[in-house]
Structure formats: structure tokens, C-alpha cells
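User: Please fill in residues for this 352-position structure.
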């Protein structure tokens, strides 16, 4: 007679890092910084502000604003991504390589997502810049979607990979490339088959949901993000990748707050604001997939290893406990509807 193993009621893991997050700027930092620092020691901070963070001087100023918003009883180490443009110079790349707080350059195809108008207009025209990045060991972080209106929105990630990323990884084999917030089986397969300098981040929403959760029974605007949720077969491929134990896949929430009025409008903003429940969402997904033993590697080890950074030495503990994610988050005179708002969660991070 077989004996079932009791499921754990608590889980202690090395403190995680968030390798893709939007903290925004200004007063909003007073909300987003503590929300992220609650769980994560390091975070790769996206540079798509207005104006964008395009050089180390602007990154240093932005990082100082972030640290000024950090409560005195918290520790946090934001790593800054710089915004890659068609005009990024070799000198800017070399300055980034010498600054340990700068982790790499973010490639936004112009018009692909929020505040991407200043992004790259011609990926083919970036070869000289990518060569300098490879030479100086500066990673390339990629929002992998084409933007041509004739390309179906559900196909834009695959077309970008075929058209641009395959050639980039072949032409620049020593360039570290992170395909951010992957959404398709095509992306998971590409990353798994690519050389060891290629990796990917996966968000909680793309593990937990598919396009039915966006479109069936109405349009659920708070589940709308870019790249958009895909069909169930792609969701299942991402679940398999995240829980595979492969060091090529690691945590990046892509937590992206937009005030309620800008999400719940005729043309709502793209982004899921998951910072307040991020690790609990991943734990929920991994538990449902019977893969809690794989969570620590995905959340706490593989990203640090890929970026050649030391793993964190402190820990967090998750307790098995049924609770509901907040319906609304308030800060100042504004409010946000977080991802998973009001829904049940089965794990909760313990506070000290």
C-alpha cells in the first residue's frame, strides 16, 4: 500500500530577486518600492520613464529616488536597466559596463508597449552597438515583439524571435540575452535550445492564466498586459519551463502599476500590478503544478547565477494559509487594482 507524503505547511527559501519590475517614478515610488522590497533583495528596474533612462547619469539619479523611497527598516538593491535607443553610443555602453548598479540595456521595439516610443526603430541597425555590448559584457534585455500592424498580436513574439533574436544570438554568441516575460511555447523552446548566454524571465500572470482569462465572459482589463496572454497550450509550455529546474528560466514579475482610471477606460493601459502578492502568486502556481521544490531555484538562484551575481544569503518563509489578495491598493489620493484582486491565495509570506 502506498503512503502519500503530506504537503508542506511552510516553505523557507533563499530570498528571491525580481529580474524585471516597473517601479515608475515620483510619488508612486512610495508605494512600489516597499511592495517590491518586502520580498525581493534585488530587482531589475525598467527604464521606460518619460523621458526614458538612457545613460548612467540618469540611472544614478533614478536609483537615488528609489532608495529615498525605501523605508529605513528594509534592505533593497535596485539594479538599473538602461533604455536602448537607435542613438545609444559606444561610450554609453562602456560607461554602463563600469557601473555595477547598471545591469544592462533594455531593447523596446518602438511602439511595442508602455512608454516605448523612443525605442529601437531598426533592430538590424543595432549591430555595432550589440558588438560593443558583447565586448564589454553588458547584457541585452529584450521585449520580444514586432510592432507591424499587419502581424497578428498573438504572433508577434514568435515573429520577433525568428526575425531578430535567432540572428542576434548567432552573430553575438558571447552576448548575454534575456528574453523578458516570455508568453509562448515558441519562446520557451527557443531559449531552451539556445546557447548558455540566453535566458528568459516568466511572469506570474503568464503561468497562472491564458487568454480565456482575458476575454471569456467579457474583457478583464486588469489581466491585460503586453505581451498579451496566449492560448492554453502556450501557458502549459511556460509552466513546464518554469518548473523544469532549468537555470535558463527565472523570476521576473513585470509588475507594472497603472492607476485604476487609466486601466478601466476605453483604451486601457497594459500591465499587471503584482508586486503586493508576487511570491505568493508564484507559490500558488508551483504548488498547483506539484513543483514547490523547484520554486527556490527559479525565484532565488538562477537569475543571480545568470547575471554572475552572488546568491542572497538571507531567507523568506511562506506559510500555507488561505487569504484573499487585496481588492484595491491606495496611495495618496489614487488607487490601483492589483493583479489577482480579491481572489484566493493559498500561501502567504511571513513578516518578521
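Assistant: Residues filled in for all 352 positions:
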Amino acid at each position: 500500500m502506498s503512503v502519500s507524503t503530506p504537503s508542506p505547511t511552510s516553505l523557507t527559501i533563499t530570498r528571491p530577486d525580481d529580474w524585471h519590475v516597473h517601479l515608475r517614478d515620483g510619488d508612486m515610488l512610495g508605494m512600489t518600492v516597499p511592495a517590491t522590497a518586502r520580498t525581493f533583495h534585488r530587482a531589475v528596474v525598467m527604464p521606460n520613464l518619460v523621458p526614458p533612462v538612457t545613460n548612467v547619469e540618469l540611472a544614478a539619479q533614478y536609483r537615488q529616488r528609489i532608495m529615498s523611497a525605501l523605508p529605513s527598516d528594509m534592505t533593497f538593491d535596485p539594479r538599473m536597466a538602461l533604455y536602448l535607443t537607435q542613438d545609444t553610443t559606444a561610450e554609453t555602453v562602456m560607461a554602463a559596463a563600469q557601473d555595477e548598479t547598471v545591469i544592462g540595456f533594455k531593447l523596446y521595439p518602438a511602439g511595442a508597449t508602455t512608454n516605448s516610443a523612443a525605442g529601437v526603430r531598426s533592430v538590424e541597425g543595432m549591430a555595432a552597438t550589440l558588438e560593443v555590448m558583447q565586448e564589454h559584457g553588458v547584457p541585452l534585455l529584450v521585449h520580444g515583439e514586432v510592432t507591424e500592424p499587419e502581424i497578428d498580436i498573438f504572433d508577434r513574439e514568435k515573429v520577433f524571435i525568428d526575425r531578430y533574436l535567432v540572428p542576434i544570438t548567432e552573430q553575438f554568441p558571447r552576448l548575454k540575452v534575456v528574453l523578458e516575460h516570455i508568453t509562448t511555447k515558441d519562446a520557451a523552446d527557443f531559449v531552451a535550445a539556445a546557447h548558455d548566454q540566453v535566458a528568459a524571465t516568466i511572469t506570474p500572470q503568464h503561468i497562472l492564466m491564458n487568454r480565456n482569462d482575458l476575454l471569456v465572459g467579457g474583457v478583464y482589463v486588469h489581466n491585460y498586459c503586453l505581451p498579451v496572454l496566449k492560448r492554453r497550450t502556450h501557458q502549459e509550455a511556460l509552466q513546464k519551463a518554469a518548473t523544469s529546474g532549468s537555470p535558463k528560466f527565472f523570476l521576473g514579475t513585470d509588475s507594472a502599476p497603472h492607476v485604476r482610471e487609466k486601466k478601466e477606460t476605453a483604451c486601457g493601459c497594459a500591465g499587471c500590478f503584482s508586486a503586493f502578492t508576487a511570491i505568493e502568486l508564484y507559490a500558488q502556481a508551483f504548488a498547483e503544478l506539484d513543483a514547490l521544490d523547484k520554486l527556490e531555484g527559479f525565484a532565488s538562484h538562477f537569475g543571480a547565477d545568470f547575471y554572475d551575481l552572488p546568491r542572497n544569503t538571507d531567507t523568506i518563509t511562506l506559510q500555507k494559509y488561505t487569504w484573499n489578495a487585496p481588492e484595491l491598493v491606495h496611495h495618496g489620493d489614487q488607487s490601483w487594482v492589483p493583479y489577482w484582486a480579491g481572489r484566493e491565495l493559498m500561501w502567504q509570506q511571513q513578516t518578521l
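For context: The longest strand covers residues 315-324.
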